[in-house]
Each structure stands twice: as structure tokens, then as C-alpha cells.
Amino acid sequence: TAIVRLGAIAQAEKAGNAQDRVNAAVRGILKGIKAAGIPEEKIATVQLTLSPVYGNRSKGSVRHRVSLLS
User: Fewer CB near the terminus (10 Å): N or C of the chain?
Assistant: First the structure.
């Protein structure tokens, strides 16, 4: 038995855009894992994080980072 942790991180001005990028990356990862013969019931998401990333606060610069760990 082996446990493998895989994940993706994306950053964008809008949280939804960062989430979309992570979703696309993880879909590709999952496709490869399933093609390798790993059954879906053995795959689980263990962490999803959304956090702000502050740049120049005087200009109100805020980006959003999404990370997903499976």
C-alpha cells in the first residue's frame, strides 16, 4: 500500500479564476491517476484552501490563492 499526496496551487485577481485554474489542473491529475488503474473510491480530497495575497496595500492590491491537496 502506498499513499501519494498530489496538489495544485493557483493565484489570480479573482478567487473564482484561481479556483478554475486549480480545478483544471486537478482534473488532469485525476485523469492520469485513473488511467493508471487507481479506483475512484481510493482518491480523496484532504484539503482545500482559499486565502488572500496582499500586494501593495496602499493601492488595494489583493490577489487570491487557492490550493487543493488530494
Answer: N
